[in-house]
Fold this protein.
Amino acid sequence: MGSTGEFGRRDLIKRAAALGLIAVPSMGVLSACASGGGSDDNKVDKGTKSEKNPLAVNESAPLDVVIFDGGFGQQYAKDAEAEYKAAYPKAEVKHAATQEIQTQLQPRFNGGTPPDLIDNSGAKQMDMGTLVGKKQLTDLNALLDAPSIDDPSKKVRDTLRPGVVEMGRFEGQETWILYYAYTVYGVWYSKTALEKLDAQYPETWDEMLAVCEKAKKKGIAGWTYPGKFPYYLPFSLYPFIAKIGGREVIDRIDNLEPNAWKDPAVKAAFEAYYELYKKGYILQGTPGLTHIESQTAWNQGKALFIPNGSWVENESKKTTPADFKMAVGAPSSLDAKRDKMPFGTIWASGGEPFIVPKNAKNPQGGMELLRIMLGKKSSQNFIKQVSSLTSLNGGTEGLTLPPGLSSSQEALAKAGENVVNPRIQDWYVALQKEKIGVAALGEMMAGRMTPDETIAKIQKFADGVRADDSIKKYRHK
């Protein structure tokens, strides 16, 4: 991860292997979408292929773009569209933004008139597995094999961070998704808040409990989280499990293997988190908070730690104090001598999935906009606007990074090859969010279930998915 200037080629290869990626993500919450097939009758004619127009974009054809208006906003996309308009001045660019991706776009897919490019993100994104299964997406290998905007001697695929292309595949070599952002997950905190307590980020769980106790005595909670969306908890809990028991524990969970959730590492991690509740270290009222409300409480100094992803710096910027010094920490060591992975082990992976529908009128235009977005100019614009890395391998040179993003870079450097990427949230979205998150972890952290009861319930949920022949299964290879 990071630019080639930050890490050597050997490190990048190691990091790609460390991700443990296989080519089968299935993103989305809802499974209904579209029928298969489609024809080319509604497509615009291709343009003339040239050095400046390698994808043969029709220079006068309209371009229809829909962006998820969430933590990253939509201005970065509008700016890239302006670059597209400058390159193809005869083209009309239609821009729309929504948080209701599936609700707004399913009728267009069903009617055979989808947009040309979609940022398919958010809680109401379309289910990727269904879109691929119904043959509703364009293979993006043409984009990946096109020359980079910045260096025509390089293919786009050769400019991306390790693992990004693989995440966009399912079972073959077709690439259906381009993950534009690059997310670092973990335990987020304020360096200023810890400094006021005369404390450092806790590298062991005993230190974590001690810091939380110190804060409690001053009327500050140790932790908060989005209680209404408790599937945020795994952003720090899953790499904690991997750290304790090794990445193979997470792989078995992803693979839906029998009794995977009964691994001792899972029990140890759950009991540690449950102790936060038992000792009164969770901010009062947290089970009723949304992600925005929990982030605001954290920004206000009501709690020290929050599990989140690197989009939080931009999403919470309106309430973040100027001297907050936002940072991300890797999971603390439960037992430094016995844990299978070292302190610094962290979860990082591609995020913000972009797709080009198969029935789009102007698929070449959709891919060309992505090619522009993956150039250094657009990538740096994204970084500056939303405090997040992109999938472009590099692009941070010459930039003064905000505190959270700078911390993300440092966390990736410290992790080295100890980067994990749990896939259950991609492959089995309903299982991860509704069942593991809301019906199990949320109940445990609210004190309504014990760790043993939570593990038994989650294992039953996983067994149910494994036995359901209507759900396509994926495995690490």
